Amino acid sequence: MKNLLKTLGLLVVILFAANSTLYVVSEFERGVKLRFGKLIEADIQPGLHVKMPVVDDVRIFDARILTVDAQPASFFTVEKKRLIVDSYAKWRISNVETYYKATGGVESTAHNRLANRVNTGLRNQFGTRTLHEVVSGERDLLMKNITEELNQSVLDSLGIEVVDVRVKRIDLPQEVSSQVFRRMTAEREKEARELRSTGKEKAEKIRASADRQRTIELANAYRDAEELRGEGDAKAASIYADAYQRDPEFYAFVRSLNAYKKSFANKGDIMLLEPDSDFFRYLKQQTAK
Q1: Which fold has domain 66-171?
Q2: What is the mean pLDDT of residues 170-192?
Q3: Cβ(82)–Cβ(75) below 8 Å
Q4: Rounded Cα–Cα distance for residues 106 and 110 (Å)
Q5: Buried b vs exposed e over 195-232: b needs ≥16 C-beta within 10 Å?
Q6: Nearest-CA neighbor of 152 among 94, 107, 70?
Q7: Regarding predicted confidence, which is higher, 246 or 73?
Q8: Which of 78, 195, 238, 264 has most Cβ atoms within 10 angstroms of its Cβ?
């Protein structure tokens, strides 16, 4: 029993000693070793390492690419136009020793300092460009310049590398947005009125052209119809004349029959004629000539 207790005690001592002397740095971490608070080893690489119990302290930092989300800030362009800019930056630890000495290994401290540097860089870049350039014209160049300027300062002062800086959103101040919105509305209404006016003008031209074509077509059709009608009437007159010349008496008789038919079609009609009128000539004749 005593041997078992001794064995268990020895295991506890070994585990405590191992826990106090051994530590692991993963692949996405970096670390520094302190002895009585003084830095004795910087940029500890990934792997299993040994430290002295009690006297040594190891600080581990995240070496992956991190994001600092800066608070929206107000900047002025070269045209003295105020903009509200919301941005963020991607960064990672480049020099572990410098990073620890500058920030004490506190990530929030690094975020605050880098955010201030980002806002300063944006203010400098926006101050030399127009609104169009910062919004669309030279936006990529602006971000590249800011990244390069930040790296020139933060690499030596903070021990970090800025991978990228991006602008999430650019807004006009509320009082300016209302004015811009009203001006845009007025411009769109003016453009709409111009388009409607142009459309009405084109519609009138098309309508006038269509009316002119219609008038011309109707005139041509009437001319052709009159020509055809004249030709028909001439042919009819020629046929009537030829028939009349062949047998004038028969032609006169047929015309009288047609006249009788039309005159006596309505029984209510009354005709007042002289008894010896030529109208009744064929009714009086009892024998044909």
Answers
A1: Tetrahydropterin Synthase; Chain A (3.30.479)
A2: 78
A3: yes
A4: 7
A5: eeeeeeeeeeeeeeeeeeeeeeeeeeeeeeeeeeeeee
A6: 94
A7: 73
A8: 78
Across the range 34-51, mean pLDDT stands at 82
- With a CB cutoff of 8 Å and minimum separation 6, the contacts of 93 are 30, 61, 62, 63, 99, 159, 160, 161
**How do the domains of the chain map onto residue ranges?**
15-62, 66-171, 257-284
63, 93 contact by CB (below 8 A): yes
Please report the DSSP string for 103-153 in residue order: HTT-HHHHHHHHHHHHHHHHHHHHTTS-HHIIIIITHHHHHHHHHHHHHHH
Q: What is the pLDDT of residues 133-168, one digit of tens each?
A: 777 767 778 888 888 888 888 888 888 899 988 888
pLDDT at 21: 77
18 pLDDT above the threshold of 70? no
- Three-class SS string for 199-252? HHHHHHHHHHHHHHHHHHHHHHHHHHHHHHHHHHHHHHHHHHHHHHHHCHHHHH
What are 85's strand-pairing partners?
73, 170
Q: How confident is the model at residue 196 (pLDDT cuts 50, 70, 90)?
A: very high
> What average pLDDT is seen over the chain?
80
Structural contact between residues 158 and 111, judged by C-beta atoms closer than 8 angstroms: no
Report, as an integer, the average pLDDT of 14-39: 76
Predicted model pTM: 0.53
Query: Please, what is the Cα angle at 73 between 71 and 79, to 5 degrees?
Result: 160
